[in-house]
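Hey, I'm writing a tutorial for new members on how sequence and structure tokens pair up, and I'd like a real worked example in the thread rather than a made-up one. If someone can provide the structure for the chain below, I'll link this post from the tutorial.
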Amino acid sequence: MLPRALDMLLQNVTDSDATLLVSIGPELGPQQKKAIEFLGATKKPFLHLWSSIPQPGRLAHRFLELHKVEVLNVVGSPKDDEEATGAFIRSVFDTMILSTHL
């Protein structure tokens, strides 16, 4: 990762209450692994969701409630297909929004 990207990642981890790692498969990308390293230093919670996990939006909603998250950092995997990752992230957030009304 470029130094500027590392600085931005560290700043996002620092400024957020928790981090959501999102990928198509269960493997983490280099940026996500670095985020976990930063999270360990700050002792902030994270959740890794990938597309084959059942009800990822409900899991994310519960995670946000449990940790009282107001500012969420979301880190995708650059090795994933951007279109598929974007669709997955939208579906997670759509379900999270619906979960607040159930």
